[in-house]
Amino acid sequence: MCGIVAIHAPDGGLAEADALPGMAALRARGPDGSGVWCSPTGRAVLGHTRLAVIDPDGGRQPIADEEGHRHLVANGEFYDYRRIRRELADAGHVFRTRGDSEIALHLHAREGHHALDRLRGEFAFVIWDERTGELFAARDRFGVKPLYYARHQGRLLIASEIKALLACGVPARWDTAAFAAHLQVAPPPDRTLFAGISQLPPGCYLVAGSQGVAVRRYWDLDYPLAADLEQGDEHWESHVEEVRAAIEEAVRVRMIADVPVAYHLSGGLDSTSVVATAARHDTVTAFTVRFDDPAYDESEVAERTARRLGVRHHQIDSHRADFAHHLRETVWAGESVQENAHGIARYLHSRAIRGHGFKVVLGGEGGDEIFAGYPQFQKDLALGLSPDLFAETRRGYRKLVAAGAPQHLRTLLDELGFVPSWVLDRYLSVTSPVMPLLRPEFAAEVSVTDACAPLLAATGDQLAGRATLHQSTYLFAKSWLPHYILASERLDAAQAVEARLPFFDHHLFAVARRTPLHWYTRAGATKYPLRAAMADRLPAEVSAGRKRGFFAPPVVGDDGMVAAVRDLARGSALRDNPFFRPEAVVRLVDRLADRPPAQRATAERLVQLVGSVGALAEEFGLTGGGTP
């Protein structure tokens, strides 16, 4: 994991100094060194801050090709790079480093954007070609690694984090339309909460040159048609073996590093599967968050699992009363709103992992997305398995429409015939409850916003003829996953920790996407292909355990957090914001303060939203409202 900055000016005039402010903003991502290069014509400048994980002594960037025409800066990891290095060396390419990043440079020289088909991993990179005057940037398939860009004063600026673009002069303004979409589903695939700052969508590449800027897709989830999914059980055993082999390989290639590697371990199926697989190949050190609320704490299960698997184990205490002190720095690191205290817990967990001397950690994120583990996905799966249930649900939708359902839900009904459960849950838990807190003009904007229309428009033909589960998971992967869940990458990066996620591996997905729908709940258990594949490696209490997401205890139970949000509401952060009515927020927190802590949980997401908006405004100096 590193930080990258790239600036393109078609008419020239750039110097190395133009990248330095952005690089300084990314120092936490790359504390082990930095480098900058400017093209002789002044049309491009590339900057890099380095976390030394592969080839610590010789992997400095930017990297030039043999002739000095192409230069690269990269963030993340390319797996199975040694095999590709040998292939390229045999073809005559000369390498300047012993690392993984350089393969992207040489593959692109040989194959252009088709090089992306060969690259496996979590990555974002930029290549400048001095001969053609073309800048090329790309992001990994699932969006694990971030890449943002903006046009400012005739220049195109690209960076790993938004704060680097702001440091280079891009103004910090709210994108009110994007936040309205966030309250419904998520911002459009290429937008952020910052006006004029875009993100390169997952699985896409960007080309900038004399013809302007173009963004194109190189990979998609591409679920099979529902009619093509297998209906019987004759290939069950071979499918389980394919899943096991794919997980084994996804974990194994992510264990390769020239520094020690750590592992996340909860009491759940996903992280335990990763740890159990890794423990078959090497000595493992695992870290577990220990919460002070038994309802959310899985540390005892994790401790028993660690003993069973024979891994070193550290438990990191996380106290709800401390969360109020870390809200601002977590929001600064994540560059977005938080809606659950797990963001603060993750931020502090990564700090502890780094404190133990680790730069790399493998985690279990992605298991629920790949194997339909979320309860909402289970509901959508059930709709596809039962025509009677689907018909009954549609009758309920008609009642919802008759009662005045918002446009974004009606759009989904018109297009898909159902509303994905995770979208409906968001409407019930966020969109509807937040309305009384909003300023009248912004409430009106939310009321007429249809966040699902641009999301559906970007899907092409990827939803037609697909199962309800796959339609739901596809939309989730294009919205909430990169915009919110994978924003945890920035929380790790703030501590100079690189998270590697084996379940977000496109080779593993290629196997999982073919799973017949009824196999997901075979024997009455969720994520059954994963459970079956890992059955001989997991403790029985994990293998048979129920789904528990990584949720921290609600912060509204802490008087300190309630007081912190009240202070934000009474200060300039909310007084000058375009979204919330400060007096409505103060009334909300005052009502919460009068309740016992155990009775405040229903307001958790509202308090998190308000607190995050206030912290974002103060930390980034966000002003007014705007559109790209």
UniProtKB/TrEMBL annotation:
Instruction: Give the residues the record marks as binding L-glutamine.
Output: 100
What NCBIfam families does UniProt report for this protein, alphabetically?
asn_synth_AEB
Catalytic activity reads:
L-aspartate + L-glutamine + ATP + H2O = L-asparagine + L-glutamate + AMP + diphosphate + H(+)
GO BP: any one term: asparagine biosynthetic process
Q: Which GO terms describe its molecular function?
A: asparagine synthase (glutamine-hydrolyzing) activity; ATP binding
Domain Glutamine amidotransferase type-2, chain residue ranges per copy: 2-211
Q: Which family does it belong to?
A: Belongs to the asparagine synthetase family.
Q: Where does the entry annotate site (Important for beta-aspartyl-AMP intermediate formation)?
A: 365
Keywords attached to this entry? Amino-acid biosynthesis, Asparagine biosynthesis, ATP-binding, Glutamine amidotransferase, Nucleotide-binding
Q: Which residues bind ATP?
A: 289
The cross-references to InterPro entries, in alphabetical order and at most eight, read:
Asn_synth_AEB (IPR006426), Asn_synthase (IPR001962), ASN_synthetase/amidase (IPR051786), AsnB_N (IPR033738), GATase_2_dom (IPR017932), Ntn_hydrolases_N (IPR029055), Rossmann-like_a/b/a_fold (IPR014729)
Position of the signal peptide: none
Where do the coiled-coil regions begin and end?
Answer: none
Q: What is this protein called?
A: asparagine synthase (glutamine-hydrolyzing)
Active-site residues are 2
Q: Does the keyword ATP-binding apply?
A: yes
EC number(s) reported in the record: 6.3.5.4
The keyword Nucleotide-binding is assigned to this record: yes
- This protein's species is Streptoalloteichus hindustanus
